Fold these 2 entries.
Entry 1:
Amino acid sequence: MSISIEPTLPIAGQKPGTSGLRKKTRVFMKPAYLENFVQAIFDGIGGVKGKTLVLGGDGRFYNDVAVQTILRMAAANEAAHIIVGQNGLLSTPAASHLIRQHQTDGGIILSASHNPGGIEEDFGIKFNAANGGPAPEAITDAIYAQTQSISRYKIWQGGALDMSQIGDTDIGDMRISIVDPVTDYADLMETLFDFPAIRVLFSEGFRMRFDAMCAITGPYAAEIFENRLGAAKGTVENETPLPDFGGMHPDPNPTWAHALMDELFLDDGPDFGAASDGDGDRNMVLGHQAYVSPSDSLAVIAANATCAPGYKAGLSGVARSMPTSAAVDHVAQALGINSYEVPTGWKFFGNLMDDNRAALCGEESFGTGSNHIREKDGLWAVLMWLNIIAATGQSVKDILSAHWQTYGRNYYSRHDYEAVDTDAAETAYQALRDRLDGLAGQNIAGLTVKSADEFRYDDPVDGSVSTGQGLRVICTNDARIVLRMSGTGTTGATLRLYLEQREMDPDKLSQDPQIALAPLIAAAETLIGFHAQLGRVKPDVIT
Ligand code: VG1
Ligand code: CO
């Protein structure tokens, strides 16, 4: 085989964000852009000589080209074995599972997740470690350092590889195993959930709609819901993954999955609805005329997980990202288990799961998962809800109301201001940051501030410290305002405002969250000035 060593120069801006490196696809298509970053991954993890990696992506535009490049670079860097999904496809949860199942040295996932795809949209790449989880900051920092000093990359010169046939092939001394992307993952789900009980539910006429949003979960969802669980054919819509996701924005939330929302709120709408994102790690859960906020979903799952065979022994602990509502904390307290609070991004849950401190984790951004893998897992969450419905015989709406009656309700909403001018966003963020120390005791638009700080995380397992993880303003009436800058956007800056208000009065548990949170929304405007300072009339996305 012929290996060439190509001279190259560092390319600015290859710093991984909340979840890998995400840029416009055209940026990734520039000469050496992908190659530099892949070589930096290899060098940043101490080389890949003799190692085994998993490789796959969500099928977005450029996935196929990038898979070829990465395979040829892995061969030139003397990797021993690459396990790759057929046609270069793997959902993020399936990739995490394969890394663990085959005990590989890690994996490379090609996705910009919930960001739109296509030549004019976004592409991304991230490295997952041997535990199956997104690389922790120590590794992403090492990769970034390599991008800043890189002088060469290695690539095998050869023709295109056929990714369509399942089986093994070799390039030089490196073995490539092309595997079915769905089967192992679907098998894992069968070990965790009560498939016979869910099958009975469907056989009795339970109606579900799953919107795969033309992204990676279509084939997984069709196999699991329709083939293995007997849901009616056509339950899964937008089933075929497309390079541009059919022009859709594959983010499962009420804004981008509005067609599904509309259907579930019809008088004769289905009993249950769900959607997933570009790479399959997010989920939105809906009942007939009921929307489950991700923070509530986490809490309900924590309270009911023992319904599912894989969790019948109980949860060792739970964890949530800082901006996620405290609803799950109240369940943890009742169960007598620990609840951990980590920064935004799934990579922070890995240590807690590896150390068996947390078995269930969640983020307000439609991410939920457990220690069955080390990524959030959209279909897992949907199956958990189906299992809970089958076990309790209750509707989603009834499960939610009962939960709030028992634990109280944490009204919650996130307001996103997207593509804000970067300097203006940084100025607004810094202005609040500068005021934090003096806020305690102040009255802001009628609310009294109890404490305010910038979140930092001291990892209890490895002692690592992560600073600058979002601004928190906590009020005396069990309310909270959080402000963060997104680390996944690719255009300007995205400011995320997180609002939370706890309500214990049993007669006030079914309000519209935007109304229940109105005083907080007003206080946030006074503090941050989205309208007054940034000229934004309303948020771009409300979840
Ligand atoms: C967002 C979410 C965060 C999530 C991340 C990756 O990050 O807020 O909770 O972990 O996306 O999800 P940010 O930095 O933009 O707020 V995915 O499904 O895009 O990998
Ligand atoms: Co995702």
Entry 2:
Amino acid sequence: MGVVNKNFTKLNENYLFSEIAHRVRDFKAANPDAKVISLGIGDVTRPLCPEVIKALHSAVDEMACKETFHGYGPEQGYSFLIEKIIEHDYKSRGIKLQPSEVFISDGAKSDLGNISELFDNGNLVAVTDPVYPVYVDTNVMAGRAGELDENGCWNNIVYLPSTLKNDFVPEIPKECPDIIYLCYPNNPTGTTLSKEALKMWVDYALKNKAIILYDSAYEAFITENDVPHSIYEIKGAEKVAIEFRSFSKTAGFTGLRCGYTVVPKGVVASDSEGNEFQLNHLWNRRQCTKFNGTAYIVQRAAAAIYSQQGQKEIKETVSYYLNNAKILREGLSELGYQVYGGVNAPYIWLKTPEGFGSWEFFDAVLNKCHVVVTPGVGFGPSGEGYVRLTSFGTTEDCVEAIERFKKL
Ligand code: PLP
């Protein structure tokens, strides 16, 4: 009989979202006439923009013709897309990248999960808390997380609390992590790091030879001038950081699937004998072995967002979601709630009122307002006492949700 990877058996089923679904199902069964509004959705709801649709149609037509058909493409992605990314997302901010430092993929989640394969299990991993669960779970699968303790923490992972107490800016821990996951703008808190705060982490990594895995899936939502769009805006980051980006929230590609990962050639890690290896080389080797490239038509669609018209169209959609975030943020703070995020991110992080834990507030909002939010504790122990609201629904629903919150 085959023997399973024991690390997989340590993971629970996704308790958070199955428990939410369960409670919403029970509520609907008991209240069949209630119109439930979901502010829990982490998926976009607006359709792809016309420029992307045009590019998709034209790429499909190319596939129908012997002369323009595309079979396997380069595992690293087509240069027509890589060049646009470098020009638009980096060069415009004074960041120099070589085409071989950018890897196109089917989305940030896969890359964020797969990157862990490059690292030995002896590395100490740090995550901010609360956190996008993929970073933790993929390290559990790899066998690097240790065991789950009674507080819901893995005993071999360093948790960096990001709460009101520290203005959602994680502090350098007393342990010495080798790999640090940072995500800004942040899911779930919707907060950002200033250049100064990010520099503190880059300097830490430079000094301690640590690697930063920087997830900037929500970069397109940044509206404030002093918020860094890329970690490479910080001097020295090109020696210690890998950056993950996604077209999912930037351009509505959650169902189309495309993202990219930047692995600068200056980022190195050593083996147990002290020999240094370029992570760019290892990642290229990994991708060439296990990944056969993102679909040609999808890469053509992604390239279309960089035209003048494409930029205009995707920005309109991002503005629509940011306007929803504003309605929620302002409406809730007028009602006296403490709310964070929502200015440079599609997420609002709400401090639950005195006496309400995350789940108690979830139940109160569902039962009294017929609105679904996400309990913050589902993102990690420091999320207790908060809930997350997303702005990916319709404006009408956001306005209506605020009206209903007045009943609470
Ligand atoms: N990173 C963060 C922080 C996310 O919230 C998400 C999706 O919700 C992803 C990455 C995944 O992005 P993709 O759709 O490109 O896999």
